Yip1 domain-containing protein
Amino acid sequence: MKKLLNPIEFYNDRKLLIVNLIIFVIGSTLAAYFRGWFDHTFHLSFRTDINFYKTFIESGVCVLLLGIFIFIAGKIINNKTRFIDALNLAFYIRIPFYLFALTNYDGRYSDLNSPIAEGNIMVALPSTSLDFIILIITSLLSLAILVFQFITIYKGFKTLSNAKKITDYLILAALLIVSMIVSSILLKNL
């Protein structure tokens, strides 16, 4: 479990980067196939119309911005922080999004966004037992992803920057929020 929550501590940085790049390509392909798109660093949405090329660009921009802001936070705390570790953490914490894209196997979430985009806030509630079960499982999966990401960011950042104080993590949190804002602005203009 320790290796799963903090791979930076246990694996060679270059090998981890290669594995992360392979997972990035496969995951971005899956996300695009299941109509997922990334509108900022910590968000996956679904659309009815997807451009594979744009999904890759969005995913790449998100990973790169996340890596840069994690690196900046690490450098503020410890001058010996390495960019490859920050980039590995950025790649790694996005893996759950690629898995979450699989939940849109039938286009269910893509179809929900169309009425909302048209200004209709009345979306049909789940009507069958299966719909409720899928909704509950998806909600629990979302919560598990969130918990996994928080733990992984905490442990990974502690390893790559030797963070010890609460202020170190406040710096990281502030810069992660900035990364969400910057990525949202950048991705709207793509």
Observations:
- Residues 2-188 form one domain.
- Residues 71 and 86 are 5 Å apart (CA to CA).
